Amino acid sequence: MAETNKAVVEVFEGEDLAVSLAKYVADLSNKFTSERGAFTVCLSGGSMIDNLRKLPEYLDSIEWSKWQVFWLDERVVPKTHEDSNYKLALDGFLCKVPIPPGNVYAINDTLSAEEAADDYERRIRELVDKNLITLSPSSGFPKFDLMLLGMGPDGHVASLFPGHPLVQENKRWVTFIKDSPKPPPERITFTFPVINASAYAALVVTGKKEADAIHSALGKSENPVKLPVALVSPEGELKWFLDKDAASKL
Ligand SMILES: O=C1O[C@H](COP(=O)(O)O)[C@@H](O)[C@H](O)[C@H]1O
């Protein structure tokens, strides 16, 4: 296990990554549900959901009714569409655990990308007013308990892509993209100030195709390029869960 500034980097073999990630999430769930009676968790799409496969083994020890589930990013497609991050999470994780449906905040899939981003931000503001989500005292952005982030081979996180102006967005909580380099083109996404206001963030990265971006973010590069993944810097703790392939160039 290695430590950077505020970050812990751990490299796993085989099933150990999924086992360790499940324990990490379960421990944080117990901490937040006992401390404040709620646990606000933000999911990514992609390989993250498969990496959560061991979490349902905590069926009886997690207070699932206290979970409040959000998405770091979502594709602007119907909830039943193969590209929907909601559908991926529902089929791969949410259908296996008893989180009340009213605590699962999917985007409104009847709206345009602009409208869906506005609507998601408005709903989060309502939950701030109800004290279900707190605000970061230092930045004023919503402070979720846990962000579960994946990373694409190009170093994108959520729907914040390298070189795209959205990476710099510093006013909105939720914004939209209509020219995503990875299909589908229309998405909504949390902005970096929201990601970085979080109390805990896990960056879960697996696979050989991700090794260059991981090297760029965590290795000793002579010409460091700041990929979006390298901008993840939560107020709280950041933990990297890497498999051997993703870490192979470190
Ligand atoms: O498009 C997306 O990609 C990233 C990374 O996905 P992965 O399959 O390479 O793990 C994901 O984190 C994001 O939520 C998703 O919309």
TrEMBL record:
Q: Name one Pfam family in it.
A: Glucosamine_iso
Query: Which SUPFAM superfamilies does the record cross-reference, listed alphabetically?
Result: NagB/RpiA/CoA transferase-like (SSF100950)
Q: Which UniProt keywords apply?
A: Hydrolase
Q: What transmembrane ranges does the database entry give?
A: none
Q: What is its EC number?
A: 3.1.1.31
Kindly list the GO CC terms recorded for this protein: cytoplasm
What is any one GO biological process for this UniProt entry? Answer: pentose-phosphate shunt
Q: What class of enzyme is it?
A: hydrolase
Listed GO molecular functions? 6-phosphogluconolactonase activity
In terms of Gene3D superfamilies, this protein maps to: 3.40.50.1360
Which ranges carry the Glucosamine/galactosamine-6-phosphate isomerase domain?
Answer: 15-240
Q: In which pathway does it act?
A: Carbohydrate degradation; pentose phosphate pathway; D-ribulose 5-phosphate from D-glucose 6-phosphate (oxidative stage): step 2/3
Q: Which family does it belong to?
A: Belongs to the glucosamine/galactosamine-6-phosphate isomerase family. 6-phosphogluconolactonase subfamily.
Spell out the NCBIfam families in the cross-references.
Answer: pgl (TIGR01198)
Official protein name in the record: Probable 6-phosphogluconolactonase
Task: Give the species.
Answer: Vigna radiata var. radiata
Query: Which lineage do the record's taxonomy fields give for this organism?
Result: Eukaryota, Viridiplantae, Streptophyta, Embryophyta, Tracheophyta
Gene from which the chain derives: LOC106776038
